[in-house]
UniProtKB/TrEMBL annotation:
GO molecular function term, any single one: DNA binding
Organism from which the protein derives: Salmonella enterica
InterPro entries registered for this protein in UniProt: CB, DNA_brk_join_enz, Integrase-like_cat_sf, Integrase_catalytic, Integrase_recombinase_N, Tyrosine_recombinase_XerCD
Protein's name according to its UniProt entry: Tyrosine-type recombinase/integrase
Family of the protein in this entry: Belongs to the 'phage' integrase family.
Residues covered by the Core-binding (CB) domain: 5-86
Annotated GO biological process: DNA integration; DNA recombination
Domain Tyr recombinase, first and last residues per copy: 123-314
Entry keyword set: DNA integration, DNA recombination, DNA-binding
Length: 333
């Protein structure tokens, strides 16, 4: 009798077959682990029924009170795993238990930051940078150290709108300051597309600084640029997926210092939202900057401009009032 495949073997078999990014591999393992913890050790992949999937959905949405988008993410991962199992005949099942288990998710407003919040975050980091310059080796070392590095990262996110994963995949040779261009490779791109972004004048000084320091540390063109351990001296022998833990720690600490949430994606959303206040002028440019394949994704950043709507209504009613007054005067005359 064929031995039943375990959850661990199931997800690892899928990862081995597919060409996934490190972050995606982590996601599949996490979701699969969540489902295993919910089911308990007695239920193996081949034993899962649609009832198991729907029961888990109810638990996630009703008991854990998670968002619909969270469940849909889990369902997508598990649906892909079971489609793979059926295609490769890893075990015998009649139907994919996660087929059509997604729920309709309400459209939420993109999370952005106000310009006052961005300015405050910069003031916090610039104060840290001044302190480190003043105290040297005596400066405190926490998740915000070294400040010059994190300020360079903030500038790059703020002035380009690139994703965090794209930033972490930037290599020394991807920066062309003589041409004012940053090349984004397909390895860090969500849609696997390679494209370029312009370098604005406000970003250039920080990029010059990090490239100078990278050269001093012997980094070559193919080496990762935003590689924090290289600049702290803690551990230079690291893998290419190093970035997430120190970056998460940085944003967590900065958010605590600021008193509001600061994330890499909020910089991206903020830039896109600001550009899309005038979609008739900036739609195509915004799409290119964000690296979207579809214009539909870019249009999600168009928000209602209540001030503009108010002005239109003011003009409309002013015209109506004028016409009413003219008509009234004509009747009296």
């Amino acid at each position: 009798m064929k031995e039943k495949i375990t959850w661990s073997d199931f997800v690892e078999e899928y990862i081995l077959e597919k060409r996934l990014r490190t972050a995606s591999e982590w996601s599949y393992r996490k979701v699969c682990g969540n489902f295993y913890n919910y089911l308990g050790p007695s239920v193996l992949p081949v034993d899962v029924t649609r009832r198991h999937a729907l029961s888990w959905r109810k638990n996630v949405l009703k008991i854990e009170r998670r968002q619909e988008a969270t469940w849909n993410n889990k369902a997508s991962h598990m649906n892909a795993l079971y489609n793979y199992a059926m295609k490769r005949k890893l075990f015998e099942i009649k139907e994919n238990p996660f087929s059509e288990t997604k729920v309709k998710a309400g459209k939420k407003k993109k999370k952005t930051m106000r310009q006052t919040q961005i300015s405050h975050a910069y003031r916090v980091m610039e104060a840290r940078e001044e302190e480190e310059l003043r105290l040297g080796v005596l400066a405190s070392r926490n998740a915000l150290f070294p400040a010059w590095f994190w300020l360079t990262m903030l500038d790059t996110l703020y002035y380009t709108g690139m994703r965090q994963n794209q930033l972490l995949h930037l290599r020394v040779g991807d920066i062309f300051l003589d041409e004012n261009i940053i090349r984004l490779g397909n390895e860090g791109s969500k849609n696997h597309h390679e494209y370029a972004l312009p370098v604005v004048s406000y970003l250039k000084p920080r990029l010059e600084l990090i490239l100078k320091k990278a050269g001093e540390r012997g980094l070559k063109k193919n080496d990762l640029l935003f590689n924090i351990p290289v600049f702290t001296g803690k551990n230079e022998n690291i893998t290419e997926d190093m970035g997430s833990p120190p970056v998460r720690s940085f944003f967590r600490r900065l958010s605590r210092e600021c008193g509001f949430t600061v994330t890499s994606h909020r910089f991206r959303h903020t830039l896109a939202t600001e550009m899309m206040r005038r979609p008739e002028q900036n739609l195509y440019i915004t799409r290119n900057v964000l690296g979207h394949s579809s214009m539909v994704s870019t249009l999600e950043y168009v928000e209602r401009d209540l001030d503009a709507e108010r002005m239109v209504l003011e003009k409309q009613f002013a015209a109506l009032k004028r016409n009413k007054k003219i008509n009234s005067e004509d009747e009296e005359g």
